[in-house]
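Workshop exercise sheet. Pairs work together: one partner reads the sequence aloud, the other fills in the structure field after running the prediction. Swap roles for the next sheet.
Pair: D.N. / O.F.
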Amino acid sequence: MRYLFTLALLVMCECRANDVGRFGSIGADLVVSDLNHYQCTAPNLADIRRVLDKGQWVDPQNLHNHYASTGCSVKGQVMQGGQIRSFTFDFGGIVYFDDGEVLACGKGCCNDHFAFCSFDPGP
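Structure field:
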């Protein structure tokens, strides 16, 4: 039964449009995973919300070319289209959804000296 629910959730997520601003309530444990021992400070929910609201969907090539993972992250969940989506928020301003989609803080998100931004537009 759980398998069918997961499969249905994945199918629904793949059929959605690529616009961003459709996320509802958000929850995160804010327990930091610090792989590189940087002593990272946890973001607040508003920081994660900013990336969810202003971020851009990125493919693996774009992610590789323009963003950097920090090794610091927290796990969370967000409502989208009536469904709960689990994610990992990397402090480089990258949201990795458990279904493989990636949302990243780029143009229009990294302004105002936003601390959780690794975007580099390149040459």
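Discussion prompt: Residues 35 and 71 are 5 Å apart (CA to CA). What would you look at next?
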